[in-house]
Amino acid sequence: xxxIHYLEKISNVSIYGLSSFLxxxxxxxxxxxxxxxxxxxxxxxxSRIPLD
Length: 52
Known about the structure:
mainly alpha, single chain
């Protein structure tokens, strides 16, 4: 039996795809805002962590 047959038995299966996309999109936006708003000196300090 194929995987698609299992998905057809679940009611409102499209909600799972939409919710996972929203979680990914919100996380991506949050990281983007963090990177844009971060100070350059903080980023330089974090970039040197592996070398210390």
